[in-house]
Every structure is written in structure tokens, then in C-alpha cells.
Amino acid sequence: MSTTLAKAAETVEYAARLDHVSKSFAGPGGQQLVLDDITLDVAPGEFVTLLGASGCGKSTLLNLVAGLDQPSAGSITTDGRPALMFQEHALFPWLTAGKNIELALKLRGVPKNDRRARAEELLELVRLKGAYGKRVHELSGGMRQRVALARALAQESQLLLMDEPFAALDAITRDVLHDELTRIWTETGLSVLFVTHNVREAVRLAQRVILLSSRPGRIAREWVVDIPQPRRIEDAPVAELSLEITDVLRGEIRRHGQH
């Protein structure tokens, strides 16, 4: 069934709606079912994390919501075209930080005379004021991810899809960017669907945590994270809920024979 990438309505009930979505890929032994009967709504302004063991279909699900692939069954509807941010920053090294952002603005049809000012506004939003002229090699890993986030925000989407964007960063940088993402999410009112395999990261960031089982990926369980923001990784309520989720995740891994 087809994926709808836009919903024209004055009152939007959801940022993304997945209705009985399944996905299969051709394999050596025939069709391999990767995702099975996923039904999920992301509300406007909601921050949802997708959690699960490696190979459970988290990134596949995100690609389906982004419109990069089509479901084998079911339907996906989003409030406009989502913006996608990957684990790798994917910045063009021959462009400056500002020009990388301007490219996204150009593709969106923003007039040339307006692009630099908007790019600088976005750099300031991600705490990189003054970095417009810096080349990619001059930026640290955390700064590159901030530029990648600014480029995603340049798409003016109401739904931001994030595929383990902080996984390659050191713990301190990751913690700083958790704070920054929480601040930007609060300031902009974006809806965020965030893929991670890090349980504490999922609890640190989200209003709701969705756990996918493996082989194929199904929604095994979900948790509402009723912990006030700002949160810290080391906060006792975060640690307590993380332990509960980890126990369930370990059970899923054992059940499916993964190591």
C-alpha cells in the first residue's frame, strides 16, 4: 500500500501515523519479514524513541516513515515531508558549515538573498554562532552533528527523524548534545522520532519509549516517561526506568536467541 507524505488539515491529529505496517525483503530463502504489523502514532510535538537490539528493524522503520522505502503492507501518513538526520553527519566537506545549511534551504526554494541570514539563525539555534565560514575539517565531531541538525531544521519540517545521531560521539559530547536537542525540541515544538540502541539515551530524551522485538520487529512494549525535563543520564528516576526497560530488552534478546 502507498505511503502518504502529506496530510492537508487545519488541525493535525498526529505528526506520523503507522497503520499495520509490515516490511519484507528478498533473501536467499525467499522473502524475509523484517517488520510485522506495526501500528504507532506520533503526536504533534511529541518526542518518541524507538529502542531495540541490533537488527530489529529500527532503521528500516525510520526509512519507511521518511519515504525512502515503501511498506510491504499497511500505510504511513505524515504531516508533511519529514526531515532525516543520520548517525554520520553526511556534510559536504568542500562546503562551509553555512553553505551546507544553505544547500538545504536552496532545495526548499528559499530565495538566494535570504539563505545566509537563515543559515546563521540556524547555526545560532544549535549554539554555533560564528561558525558559518568554517570548513567541515575544522569542526569537532559534536560540532559537525550540530551543523547536521541545523541542516535538518532548515527543511522546516514538523517531524524530525533521527537515526542514532549521537552513537559515534564520546559520552561527554553526547550528553551536551542531549541537552541541546531537548532545548531545541522544546523551543521549536517539533515532533521527533529518534532511533537508538542505548536505553538510557532513550529514557533521557523521550516522552515515550517504544521497544521493538526482533526477527521480525514488532512493538513489544511501550513506556510513558513521566519524568520532568531537563533530565540527566545519572538521575535516579532515569536510571530506575532504564533498568526496567533493560530487563525487558534482555528478555526479548534471549527469546530470539541473539547475543
Write the layout of secondary structure elements.
Elements: E1 16-27, E2 30-42, E3 47-51, H1 58-66, E4 73-78, E5 83-85, H2 97-107, H3 112-125, H4 141-153, E6 159-163, H5 171-188, E7 191-196, H6 199-205, E8 208-212, E9 219-224, H7 236-255
Parallel strand pairs: 3-7, 3-8, 5-6, 6-7
Antiparallel strand pairs: 1-2, 1-4, 8-9
CATH architecture of the largest domain: 3-Layer(aba) Sandwich
Could you tell me the radius of gyration in angstroms? Answer: 19 Å
Helix content: 25-40%
Number of separate strands: 9
State the CATH superfamily name of the largest domain.
P-loop containing nucleotide triphosphate hydrolases
Please report which band the strand proportion falls in: under 5%, 5-15%, 15-25%, 25-35%, 35-45% or over 45%: 15-25%
Average the pLDDT over all residues and give the rounded result: 89
* CATH fold topology of the largest domain: Rossmann fold
Number of spatially distinct domains: 2
For the biggest β-sheet, the strand order reads 5-6-7-3-8-9
Organism: Streptomyces griseoruber
Protein name: Sulfate ABC transporter ATP-binding protein
Domain ABC transporter: 16-241
InterPro entries: AAA+_ATPase (IPR003593), ABC_transporter-like_ATP-bd (IPR003439), ABC_transporter-like_CS (IPR017871), ABC_transporter_ATP-bind (IPR050166), P-loop_NTPase (IPR027417)
